[in-house]
Amino acid sequence: MLYGFNNTKAIYPNNTIHELFEEQVKRTPDSVALVFNEKEMTYRELNEKSNQFARFLLKNGVKTEDVVGVMIDRSIEMIIGIFGILKSGGACLPIDPEYPEDRICDIIELSKPKIILSSKKQIANKIETIVIDQQIELFDSSDLELNIQSNNLVYIIYTSGSTGKPKGVMLEHKNLVNLIVWAQKNTDITYDKVLQFATLSFDMSFHEIFSALPNGGALFLIDEALRMDTLRLLRYIDEKEISTLWLPTAYLKYVLNSGEFTKILPEKVLHIITAGEQLIVSDYLREYLRKIVL
Q1: pTM attached to this predicted model
Q2: Could you report the per-residue pLDDT of 12-51, keeping only the tens digit for each?
Q3: What is the spatial distance between Cα 99 and Cα 112, in angstroms, rounded to a whole number?
Q4: Which domain holds residue 93?
Q5: How far apart, in whole angstroms, are the C-alpha atoms of residue 83 and residue 161?
């Protein structure tokens, strides 16, 4: 227990998470990075767009560890926004547009974001919101050379508040890099095609995004209508031959216990990662896992 199981000391790169992505861009610039509906974006395009957006944020006064809100639906622009924020040195503050107005106001009041990225220009609690539009095309698209450290913040995500007032949980670059690199070295999970299922305000979304993109995979983004339609979603996963899924345990149990869904479960899936509560491995789940592995 002391010298075997507990021997977890390891050397990890002292990089920021977006530097890992930039290294992957150099390896596979023309590979598909993002897929959303019928639109695709390569690694080079995503990197250049996010560099331009980072410079736009810097021009608008964002400094290292300034909090920048992201209140936008799942889209390619959402990913550009996240990378642009990190490349500028800022910290992401996900704000679900579907949250009740009171919760949105509380999060903004507590975190005091410098700017909020939104799908439309508005004023939220006296804080200006911005959109990713053609303005960013005016900025240089090369990689930035800023002194962003591994102990700078990646994000602040607020808890549900079920045990009291919601609290902002802060994560540094080194924590996320540690997690991603550990999975690379110690598991056989592949990231060729990854589904981005979780809402951005749930920390698993960052695991999905930053497992796929620093590893050369394609991240498949889905709109909320598809995400909520389980039948269509399973067919989509099968059609796109998506290989890696992060699914909440309750959702996975729901899918595996419905006769309507079990008939069309995707067979090209290689990895299903689930967490949060106990998963009972039923005979059916065991048989399904055996089928997709073999």
Answers
A1: 0.91
A2: 788 999 999 999 999 999 999 999 999 999 999 999 999 9
A3: 17
A4: 31-228
A5: 28
CA angle (99, 154, 118) in 5-degree steps: 40
Asked if 157 contacts 107 with a C-beta cutoff of 8 angstroms, the reply is no
CATH number at residue 123: 3.40.50.12780
Q: What is the pLDDT of residues 80-118, one digit of tens each?
A: 999 999 999 999 999 998 888 888 888 999 999 999 998
In angstroms, rounded to a whole number, what is the distance separating the alpha carbons of residues 256 and 291? 14
Beta bridge partners of 170: 156
In a domain, residue 156? The reply is yes
For the chain, state the CA radius of gyration.
20
Closest of 227, 221, 271, 273 to residue 32, by C-alpha: 221
| 78 contacts 72 by C-beta, under 8 angstroms | yes
Q: Which of 121, 145, 141 is nearest to 50 (CA)?
A: 141
First to last CA, the chain: 34
Counting every residue written for the chain, the total comes to: 294
Evaluate whether residue 258 is within a structural domain.
Answer: no
Does 259 reside within a domain?
A: no
Cα–Cα distance between 280 and 285 in angstroms, integer?
9
Report CA dihedral (34, 39, 41, 45) to the nearest 10 degrees. Answer: -140
Taken in order 236, 242, 247, 249, the sign of the CA dihedral is: positive
Q: Are 268 and 290 in contact (CB under 8 A)?
A: no
Amino acid identity for residue 158 in this structure: Y
Q: Which of 167, 254, 169, 243 is nearest to 208 (CA)?
A: 243
In whole angstroms, give the CA distance from residue 49 to residue 65.
Answer: 21
Q: What is the number of domains present in the chain?
A: 1
215: in domain: yes
How many other CB atoms are there within 10 angstroms of residue 220's CB atom? 21
